[in-house]
Amino acid sequence: MLNKENSELAINGGNPISNAKILIHKPYMDEDDFDSVDKVTRSTFVSGDGPECRIFEKGLAEYLDVKHVLFVNSATSALELAFRVKSFPAGSEVIVPNFTYTSTAIAALYNNLNVVLADVYPDNGSLDVSKLKSYITKKTVAIAPVDYGGIPAEMDEIMNIANQHGLYVVHDTAQSIGSEYKGKKTGCQGHVSTFSFHGTKNLTTGEGGAFVTNDDSIADRVKILREKGTDKYSFLTDNKDRGYYEYVDIGNSYVQSNINGALGISQLNKLDWMNNERRKIAEFYKNELSGIKEIDFMRITEGSNHNWHLFGVLVLLEDRYWIMDALRAEGVLANVHYTPLHRNKYYSCLGEDRDFPGSIEFFNRLLRLPIYPSLSSVDAQRVTQAIAKVFL
Questions:
Q1: Would you say the C-alpha torsion 347, 352, 355, 356 has a positive or negative sign?
Q2: Strand 180-181 relative to strand 304-305: parallel, antiparallel, unpaired?
Q3: Bridge partners of 70?
Q4: 19 in helix, strand or coil?
Q5: CA 328, CA 11: separation in Å to the nearest integer?
Q6: Regarding beta strands 140-143 and 168-172, do their DSSP bridges make them parallel or antiparallel, or are they unpaired?
Q7: Among the residues of the chain, which ranges form H helices?
Q8: What pLDDT shows up at residue 28?
Q9: What band does 267 get if pLDDT is binned at 50, 70 and 90?
Q10: For a Cys-Cys bond, which of 72, 73, 84, 327 suits 334, CB 3.0-4.6 Å?
Q11: Mind listing the pLDDT tens digit for each residue in 59-69?
Q12: All structural domains of the chain
């Protein structure tokens, strides 16, 4: 039970559990990563879509068991391409979970599509499938489910509904690299999937993302769209000695540097190990915190294996910010992550709190704890000690 007047708490002037701040996240890199970047830099092939990029794409395709992986400069770009490749009529509607990063929505908006916000489950932030059909209209062309925190969305149910209504599914898998849904890695469930390799993600190339699909025609056009509308991809692949490539479509520059490709290769080689280290920390947290009745854990979708991109706990609304501040005073940099889209200025016209009860409850209760492969067992123990001190 919380005792906010406890004089031993650092927030009240007591000694903190940790004098050094325990970060909420930190990318894992080792000598293999440093060496891979050094070697490709010394090769002087540092421009986009280079040999290491192709090797990374091939390795990731094999890891995910998909036909096509295209390395791009961000998951945001991958999402934008996912809608651009379809050329839907302007004003068509895309269903987007209300609890997600803005990229999921702006990808549709950039393509002159309208966003319809959908409510999420209050216990894990995933698209509430029981409400999904209520958002479908004659203008609906696509659904963009999100794997919040690395927890796979209920993709079988979502795909069944999408197929019933002839809808395109862009699966925002930005946070779920290495997660599994019913025995398969995320990335193969929708028509397109989009991963992020930002510095905060389980696998990082600093900045970067991947466009993933099993559809040959979609992949072929994205190869052109991501390289300024040129046929440079086939030009490099076929190795034709003609000295030029052609401009065959509209496009933009979304390819990644060969340096980032090299980092992707070394990161992919240890992805399962990094995710397993996260899993060990998550299991430790759950074992140590399971006796605190004021804390609930986020629900993991049935049939899923979670990559533990985030570790979130659910606490009471009226105490959440005080708990966050108290943990920060103890040296644990907990935070609350982002707000529901409709509560942001740009999306405020798309609904009110009463329209999204699940989103509001989830946001009001969510508190994130530090988790990353290099988090030491000592610091993980300090995290649980700080929580126990605050709650007990």
A1: positive
A2: antiparallel
A3: 211
A4: coil
A5: 8
A6: parallel
A7: 31-43, 51-64, 75-84, 102-109, 155-165, 216-225, 232-238, 258-269, 271-289, 320-329, 357-365, 377-391
A8: 98
A9: very high
A10: 327
A11: 999 999 999 99
A12: 10-26+272-391 (3.90.1150.10), 31-269 (3.40.640.10)
- Cβ atoms of 194 and 64 within 8 Å: the answer is no
C-alpha 116/C-alpha 136 separation (Å) is: 9
Task: Output the DSSP codes for 139-194.
Answer: TEEEE--B-GGGPPP-HHHHHHHHHHHT-EEEEE-TT-TT-EETTEETTSSSSEEE
- The residues, ordered by sequence, that sit 6+ positions from 291 with a Cβ below 8 Å of its Cβ are none
Nearest Cα residue to 341 out of 356, 329, 361, 319? 356
Average pLDDT of the residues in 220-224: 96
Question: Which tokens is 69 given?
Answer: 């992986």
Tokens (6 digits) for 349: 């016209």
Which phi and psi angles does 138 have, rounded to 5°? -65, -20
Q: Which helix (H) or strand (E) holds 201?
A: none
CB atoms within 10 A of CB 346: 12
Q: Provide the token pair at 372.
A: 């990353």
DSSP strand pairing (311-314 vs 296-297): antiparallel
Q: Which of 36, 42, 41, 85 is nearest to 56 (CA)?
A: 36
Q: Is 189 within 8 Å of 181 (Cβ atoms)?
A: yes
- Distance CA(209)–CA(73), nearest Å, equals 6
